[in-house]
């Protein structure tokens, strides 16, 4: 039986209990799975470490061992998932001092990153190579994400009744749980519930495609079959190769959509709302390189305007 007041309890047992008390039912299932994965790593790396033995050096050694097989950002996530439990153990008097203080985050050298987005010409070229048949297929899925910037799980959950064709709107109010057992799930956050404006061409195309489909059934998930992100990414990769453009992922299409909007002068606030970001800060962090490039262009424009004044 677990004794939460026992400093000699094994750390991984304490951590599992902490997850069940503070996280179970309070976070999304996907996030919960990350905490459980962290628990499994504790069992693997420090099966005999007691809560009372969690010194700064012991904690740093744990992070170092984890970092041998993971990139720095993944190690940082591991650290953050552990830190809440460790600080609670300090508050409960099971550990005298915070062992996570001044922790140094290491990690493997990141793999070479694929291009995150296409420019306008590359996107247009890629889209002309899609096989847009008379019936719904994954190429239509790729087109819809390129035109809207919605997330993979959001696009899978789209049903015919989510389209408001007269007003050119697409309602995003749920996701499809493709990673686990399938079925509709809530959106990533409250800000993700939104209406996305559609262009007229997309309205005409999809109004014809979905007119005979069941109103409440997902249009891209046929017979609730298992859907794999890798399958759709494979189709997109082959299309990129045919079009002779950089190979990107489905998530890269979302980046492409946002990048093109920013480059044509759409405000960060509008892009954040369209993407369903919880705050503009998320948008600014994700697209910092583009925003900086645009600011440089603004400076050039300002200087040209000022130099014309006599």
Automatic annotation (TrEMBL):
<keyword id="KW-0233">DNA recombination</keyword>
<dbReference type="InterPro" id="IPR050090">
    <property type="entry name" value="Tyrosine_recombinase_XerCD"/>
</dbReference>
<dbReference type="GO" id="GO:0006310">
    <property type="term" value="P:DNA recombination"/>
</dbReference>
<dbReference type="InterPro" id="IPR002104">
    <property type="entry name" value="Integrase_catalytic"/>
</dbReference>
<feature type="domain" description="Tyr recombinase">
    <location>
        <begin position="113"/>
        <end position="301"/>
    </location>
</feature>
<dbReference type="Pfam" id="PF00589">
    <property type="entry name" value="Phage_integrase"/>
</dbReference>
<dbReference type="InterPro" id="IPR011010">
    <property type="entry name" value="DNA_brk_join_enz"/>
</dbReference>
<keyword id="KW-0238">DNA-binding</keyword>
<protein>
    <submittedName>
        <fullName>Integrase</fullName>
    </submittedName>
</protein>
<dbReference type="GO" id="GO:0015074">
    <property type="term" value="P:DNA integration"/>
</dbReference>
<comment type="similarity">
    <text>Belongs to the 'phage' integrase family.</text>
</comment>
<dbReference type="InterPro" id="IPR010998">
    <property type="entry name" value="Integrase_recombinase_N"/>
</dbReference>
<dbReference type="InterPro" id="IPR013762">
    <property type="entry name" value="Integrase-like_cat_sf"/>
</dbReference>
<dbReference type="GO" id="GO:0003677">
    <property type="term" value="F:DNA binding"/>
</dbReference>
């Amino acid at each position: 039986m677990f004794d939460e007041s026992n400093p000699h309890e094994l750390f991984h047992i304490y951590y599992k209990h902490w997850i069940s008390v503070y996280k179970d039912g309070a976070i999304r299932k996907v996030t919960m799975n990350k905490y459980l994965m962290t628990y499994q790593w504790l069992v693997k790396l420090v099966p005999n470490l007691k809560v009372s033995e969690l010194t700064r050096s012991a904690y740093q050694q744990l992070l170092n061992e984890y970092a041998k097989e993971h990139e720095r950002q993944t190690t940082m996530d591991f650290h953050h998932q552990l830190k809440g439990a460790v600080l609670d153990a300090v508050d409960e008097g099971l550990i005298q001092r915070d062992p996570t203080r001044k922790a140094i985050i290491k990690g493997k050298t990141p793999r070479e990153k694929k291009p995150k987005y296409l420019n306008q010409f590359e996107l247009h070229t890629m889209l002309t190579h899609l096989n847009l048949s008379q019936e719904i297929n994954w190429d239509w899925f790729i087109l819809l994400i390129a035109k809207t910037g919605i997330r993979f799980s959001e696009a899978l959950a789209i049903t015919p009744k989510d389209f408001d064709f007269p007003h050119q709107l697409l309602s995003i109010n749920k996701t499809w749980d493709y990673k686990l057992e399938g079925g509709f799930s809530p959106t990533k956050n409250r800000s993700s519930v939104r209406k996305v404006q559609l262009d007229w061409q997309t309205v005409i195309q999809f109004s014809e495609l979905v007119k005979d489909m069941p109103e409440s059934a997902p249009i891209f998930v046929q017979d609730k079959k298992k859907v794999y992100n890798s399958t759709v990414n494979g189709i997109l990769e082959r299309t990129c190769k045919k079009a002779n453009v950089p190979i990107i992922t489905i998530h890269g299409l979302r980046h492409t959509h946002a990048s093109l909007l920013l480059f044509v002068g759409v405000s960060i606030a509008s892009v954040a709302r369209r993407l369903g970001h919880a705050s503009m800060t998320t948008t600014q962090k994700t697209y910092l390189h583009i925003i900086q490039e645009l600011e440089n262009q603004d400076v050039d424009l300002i200087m040209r305007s000022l130099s014309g004044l006599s």
